Each structure stands twice: as structure tokens, then as C-alpha cells.
Amino acid sequence: DAKTTQPTSMDCAEGRAANLPCNHSTISGNEYVYWYRQIHSQGPQYIIHGLKNNETNEMASLIITEDRKSSTLILPHATLRDTAVYYCIVRRSNYQLIWGAGTKLIIKP
Amino acid sequence: DTGVSQNPRHKITKRGQNVTFRCDPISEHNRLYWYRQTLGQGPEFLTYFQNEAQLEKSRLLSDRFSAERPKGSFSTLEIQRTEQGDSAMYLCASSSGQGADYGYTFGSGTRLTVV
User: Fold this and answer.
1) Angle subtended at Cα B43 by Cα B103 and Cα A47, rounded to the nearest 5 degrees
2) Touching B: A residues 4-33, CB under 8 Å
3) Average pLDDT of each block of 10 consecutive residues along chain A (109 residues)?
4) pLDDT the model gives residue B97
């Protein structure tokens, strides 16, 4: 199974861009990369997903390297409410999400 | 439609008792998934349904666990003879399953504590 590697924790100043890296060097050609976040005791919240191209939505941008071995989630203007655990996930071809341990992102005032 | 709904939010049970959780997915979603999450870890896949058919089960889903989706709408997850190791957050998600490019919507989960 393609697995992901993320930093255990990161800090970011409020108002700055938060850049969260993810390594998925064993990803297969048809496996999507998803990002979710989870605030304590709540269900995971969808952020963004992509296959090969960079993607942007109202929450974030996803930058995927050309070889697809890594990606970066960018929160352009972090707020205190963005403090959460962020998961970089690879979707197996049979639609199963393979989760790692995530990055605990702390936004500091 | 307000998203994926899970009930109850919390369940405390004594070891050896049976428990059942319910998940109501987004109405137009034909795929439904169950995951389990223990403290400090990411969710682990348990099983998934396409309409009423259970298409995949993880080896984590022991004989004490059973999931159903009888009419292709809501789903139930039952744990028989609960053990302390079953204490976890049980998450349900749904997706449209159209093509290959889609997102998953998760519910708020049911937190099970076995005492």
C-alpha cells in the first residue's frame, strides 16, 4: 500500500501561509492524494484532493511534484481556527483511504 | 441534506455487551465506508458498501463485527461481546462513487468506551 510520511508537528504564525509537506514516494500512477483535517473530537473535514495537477479551492492549494512522490498543502492565510491535525492520504484504487499519523499544525497569534 | 449523520455520538458499555451504531449518509451517495480511529492515530478502514452490497472488509473486522446496509441507504455497525480493545471512535463516510474523481464526507463519529 502506498503510505505517506508527514512531520509530526508544525507551527505557523497567524496570517502567514502554512505549508504542510507530505512524502508519498511509493504512490502508484492511478492513486489520488487527499488532504483532510481533524479538530479534536470531530470527524475529518475534507480539504482538497488531486491526481497529477496542482489544485486550488476556497480552503487551500495542493501542489504535487511532477514525479508525484511528494506534495504540499498550502493554507494561504492561516487563522487560529486552522489549528488541527492535517492528514495526507493516498487513495487505493479500490477506493480505500490509507491514512498516516498526520501533522499537528498549531497556529500561533 | 446536512451531511453524514452518526448516532449515538457517545456510547459507554460494559465489556461483553453488544452495541450497534447507525450511519445516515448523504442521500445521493451510493458508497458508504466505516473506519475506526484510536487515540493519536489516523483512521483505519473497516469496510465499504456500494449501495446495499458489502464489497470489502478489512481483516480488522473480526467475527464479532458485522455491518449492514439493507436498503442501500443507512448503515449499521454492530459489535458483539465488546472488549476493552474495541474502545475507539467509529467513523462513517460516504461518497458518490461516480468516476474516479470524488471526495469523501465524514460524519462526526461515535465514540465507544468499553469499561
Assistant:
1) 35
2) 30, 32
3) 87 97 91 92 92 94 96 96 96 80 95
4) 66
